[in-house]
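hiii, so i know i said id send this last week but things got crazy w the move. better late than never?? heres the sequnce for the chain we talked about at the cafe, plus the structure i predicted for it. fair warning i was half asleep when i ran it
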Amino acid sequence: MSDIEQKDYLDPLDILALMELLPHRYPMLMVDKIINITPDNGATGIKNVSINEPYFQGHFPGKPVMPGVLIIESMAQTAAAYTAYAEKLDTKGKVVLFMGLDKVKFRRPVVPGDQLEIHVKTSQKRPPVWKYESKAIVDGKVVAEANYAAMLADPGGI
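okay and structure toks below
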């Protein structure tokens, strides 16, 4: 690996580091780690999908499928943690709120045993608002994609 490639990547974020950056906790923490983090180019979140997830009890009995809205939530959490880490934002006592979703597409079901690779890239930033492009991939195949906007907010103001 060249010196340039080594400098471009930040250290990966494990679950403990994510819990420092995000206010989410079980059962709503929807990303397990973030890898391939570059300050200006994006990151890859990893979500290991387990049959033990509480939503599989009812979605759907006998044919468990991860709800699409939770795939989108995984994308949003990956983007929030990536941005906070790469831009050194103070997230203590703050929340990240969706402002809009666009071009959302679900290509195939996500089931227990799958590992979601959530590829996130910042497309625009005007703090406190950021826009992202994201794809969720399982075994090299796109399962979902979306563009979205989010903002960092003080929960007292919502």
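btw The chain has one domain: 3-157. thought thatd interest u
miss u guys!!
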